[in-house]
Amino acid sequence: MPFRSAPVKLIENWFSERYSDNLQLSFRVKDQLLSVRTDFQRIDLFETYDFGKLLTIDGTVQLTEYDEHIYHEMITMMPFYAFGIKPESALVIGGGDGGTASGLLSLGFRNVTNVEIDSQVVEVSKKFFPDLSSAFKDSRCNLIIDDGIKYVRNISNKFDFVLVDSTDPEGPAEGLFSEEFYKSIHGALKPGGVAVTQSGSPLYQPKAIKLANSGMKKAFRNVYTYCCFIPTYPSGFWSFTMGSDSDLRFQSNERSGKYFNSEILHGALNLPQFVRDMIK
Ligand code: AG3
């Protein structure tokens, strides 16, 4: 299925993310709280009926209050417990809403560097999502407004965990799915460190999952894709891809989240056959 985003247009108070000419996901909204054009993208914020506040970038759903925990638990807790990462120093690239950084702090990371290209995403999140963005008020978190691709190129041997919390691999985020970028991340990690990226919907965005897999395999010895269910993202069926030179060593004392638990830790790595075929 071809995938593309379209300009934000409310029709009779419905916001729609358009997946193709023939398919879209729509939310009836009470109110549009914000619409700004930044140097990088367009940010919109809506108050929905069933999903709380909804943040979109260039017409694509980034998060809703109702289901953001699934994405943020799965990008942080899953690699953390699957590889037994030391909760010392982590780097988040993108993730300007703060959800990923806040998740890392609650796992006990001692310092979290968050490099986000667009300061406006941070400002919107601080104003409208105070809990999600709480990391930005915490002294353990260092927020840097910069291009993550450039930033990571100049760092070596510094982080235990690097997380790429990006938009879709089109336009500004395209470089965040490249082999060169994954190699820079490998260099920024301490030996045996772990990288993870969101890798899109296996059903609607095969490009994202394929790029993440092929690129990471060039940079890391072990690469694993895992999946979860996020109702407000394209198809609801979502993937992440993680890589490391270490081997998996599941921790047995893992903490549960609202979505994540010990069964998910193991189960999320079990992939449907079409996904396995896609990343072979
Ligand atoms: N970033 C990944 C969102 C990708 C959604 N794609 C789409 N709706 N077409 C989420 C940011 C959360 N910190």
Identify the notable features of this structure and list them briefly:
280 residues, alpha/beta, Spermidine Synthase, Chain: A, domain 2, Rossmann fold, 2 domains, seven-stranded mixed β-sheet, globular, binds 1-{4-[(3-aminopropyl)amino]butyl}guanidine
Q: Can you describe this structure?
A:
- The protein has two domains: 52 residues, Roll (Spermidine Synthase, Chain: A, domain 2), CATH 2.30.140; 211 residues, Vaccinia Virus protein VP39 (Rossmann fold, 3-Layer(aba) Sandwich).
- The protein is built from eight helices and twelve strands.
- The strands form two sheets. Strands 8-7-6-9-10-12-11 form a seven-stranded mixed beta sheet. A five-stranded antiparallel beta sheet has the order 1-2-3-4-5.
- The longest helix is centred in the first third of the chain and has 16 residues.
- The chain is globular and about 55 Å long.
- The N terminus is likely disordered.
- The structure holds 1-{4-[(3-aminopropyl)amino]butyl}guanidine.
Would you identify the regions where 5 or more consecutive residues have pLDDT less than 50?
1-6
**What is the spatial order of strands in the main beta sheet?**
8-7-6-9-10-12-11
CATH fold name of the largest domain: Rossmann fold
How many helices? The count is 8
Oligomer: single chain
Strands, count: 12
User: Can you give the mean pLDDT?
Assistant: 95
